């Protein structure tokens, strides 16, 4: 992406963020889904950032896309999660593994917002180990018929299209991936609102009962689903890490402004040493997270340029895991410290740090829990023969 296009895209992201903030503030207080995210993202042409121009997108490289998601992350993990679900793990697998016909059918419409995408991997009994999923499929003529439940899926309640995964019936064989249109008979969906945070984002579960998916909607080859899922999670992890960097940036800005304005003991609390300790820690989180996240983004771009290079691919996958693990924990601590700087007001979700604290906690769970990512990092250091799960 050239510098002029990058500048225009990031300018559009800034305009979107300025417009979405007052809406998000109100929706958060009222604990309701922010229905303006999609129309405002469409207005500013942000729904196809990662798509090539041939599919109506803006052809953003990974570094530029990470910059965009970092800025969006300042507006809240719920807002950023929509973009991750729609693009990083929605458009990305279709763009990467889809046929040309599938790309033409889904990606331009997704870039316009005519289709809303989601990624359906997690199940009630299959979280950190997707191989334990229970959703099944069988071939019947020109369709695959799917049965099962997916759980805690971002965007599922608003999605028109979900990339989902299932075993052959009887679990005899390997997982396959499907592009699922949600409007047919046998699709039931329920929004999940009993959440610790992200009240403005859509999270849902869905059940498929003898749900017919056209054979033309098989994503990749039959049996390649696990590889597609794991490859998509690399993109997802980078998007989460970028959003967490945005959370840290916003927590720092809010804490600094409040500390300078708030008077206690005859002076601004910014002059109190223990408050300065929190400010310094948040800044160090920002500094370190920015370095890690953009190093991972650069590695992903390098791998994208040389897709046949296994070493570049392995490096980008490891750095995405490291970036997500580091950023999620740094953002959690930064939000906690910002709440402490705000004192009693920090406990209120009328103020931004408290909202960030509630929302960013999920980033240590979805797209790979802390524990799974630590095992991934440890195996990279020790060697593959020491992998915990073999």
Chart the SSEs and their pairings:
Layout: H1 3-30, H2 37-43, H3 62-73, H4 77-97, H5 100-112, E1 117-120, E2 136-140, E3 143-154, E4 161-168, E5 176-181, E6 187-191, E7 203-214, E8 218-219, H6 225-261, E9 263-264, E10 267-268, H7 273-305, H8 310-342, H9 352-360, H10 370-382
Parallel strand pairs: 1-4, 2-4
Antiparallel strand pairs: 2-3, 3-7, 4-5, 5-8, 6-7, 9-10
Helix content: 40-55%
List the uncertain runs.
none
The arrangement of helices and strands along the chain is HHHHHEEEEEEEEHEEHHHH
Total count of strands:
10
- What oligomeric state do these chains adopt? single chain
Q: Based on helices, strands and strand pairing, what is the structural class?
A: alpha+beta
* Number of helices in the DSSP assignment: 10
Approximate shape: globular
Q: Summed up, what is this model?
A:
The protein has 390 residues and is of the alpha+beta class.
Provide keyphrases for this structure.
8-stranded mixed β-sheet, 10 helices
Report what the structure shows.
The protein is of the alpha+beta class. Helices cover 53% and strands 15% of the residues. The longest helix is centred in the middle third of the chain and has 37 residues, at 225-261.
